[in-house]
């Protein structure tokens, strides 16, 4: 998942970046509202964390600007503890959730996980597709009830495809949303991840969860069995 952190406090921004990266996010950051407004309008993100009190352009105006441009990225706003007016104004500006400072890292990560899921149409943290389940909270994948051991990159690739099940995802989009900017975009590493996922999830080649759409990319092809 690709996240944008907009926070002018350098220490907090660094902590947020570290926490999200440890959770598997690819993170970009900004310390002012003007740059954040541009980034959100020009690039696609899976989630954004926005502080309300930003220099140059306020966090509220950043969100309003994104929404005016029909940008639907889920936004979590950071507010001062007990400032209910900030919370209300943030939600009215187009934010999807809020979190008061100071906060616990686990609560932040849980809220972001929920926002990403809901944006993809999944209310439950467990994504069910026939015999295959992916628990986005525990970051565990099971096939027929048995845990499938995946590397971090394999998990991230599968999670993104499952959250976008039924859609054809280009290699460029996968690379953009899953890997850091210094990732070798001309390499065949992504193809290796896909091949390994197929081997681990479909050893008998009967399930065919990930199909290749020639010239376009990959598609997660199983039907959802979510009950939520």
From TrEMBL:
Against Gene3D superfamilies, the record matches this protein to: 3.40.50.2300, 6.10.250.690, Winged helix-like DNA-binding domain superfamily/Winged helix DNA-binding domain (1.10.10.10)
Domain OmpR/PhoB-type, chain residue ranges per copy: 124-222
Which residues form the DNA-binding region?
A: 124-222
Mention any one GO cellular component term assigned to this protein in its UniProt record.
cytosol
Q: Which UniProt keywords apply?
A: DNA-binding, Phosphoprotein, Transcription, Transcription regulation, Two-component regulatory system
Record InterPro entries:
CheY-like_superfamily, OmpR/PhoB-type_DNA-bd, Sig_transdc_resp-reg_receiver, WalR-like, WH-like_DNA-bd_sf
Sites bearing 4-aspartylphosphate, chain numbering? 51
Instruction: Specify the Response regulatory domain's residue ranges.
Output: 2-116
In alphabetical order, the GO MF annotations are: phosphorelay response regulator activity; transcription cis-regulatory region binding
One annotated GO biological process:
regulation of DNA-templated transcription
Tell me the protein's name: Response regulator transcription factor
């Amino acid at each position: 998942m690709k996240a944008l952190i907009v926070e002018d406090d350098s220490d907090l921004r660094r902590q947020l970046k570290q926490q999200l990266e440890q959770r598997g996010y690819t993170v970009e950051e900004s310390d002012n509202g003007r740059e954040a407004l541009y980034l959100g309008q020009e690039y696609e993100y899976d989630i954004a964390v926005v502080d309300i009190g930003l220099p140059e352009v306020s966090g509220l105006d950043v969100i309003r600007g994104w929404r005016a441009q029909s940008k639907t990225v889920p936004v979590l706003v950071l507010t001062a503890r007990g400032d209910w007016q900030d919370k209300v104004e943030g939600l009215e500006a187009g934010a999807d959730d809020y979190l008061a400072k100071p906060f616990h890292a686990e609560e932040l990560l849980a809220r972001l996980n929920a926002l990403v899921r809901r944006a993809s149409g999944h209310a439950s943290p467990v994504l069910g597709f026939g015999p295959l389940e992916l628990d986005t909270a525990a970051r565990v994948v099971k096939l027929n009830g048995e845990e499938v051991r995946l590397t971090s990159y394999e998990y991230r690739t599968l999670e993104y495809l499952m959250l976008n099940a039924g859609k054809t995802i280009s290699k460029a989009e996968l690379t953009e949303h899953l890997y850091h900017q210094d990732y070798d975009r001309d390499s065949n590493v992504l193809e290796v991840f896909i091949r390994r996922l197929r081997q681990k999830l479909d050893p008998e080649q009967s399930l065919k969860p990930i199909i290749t759409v020639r010239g376009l990319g990959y598609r997660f092809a199983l039907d959802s069995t979510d009950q939520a």
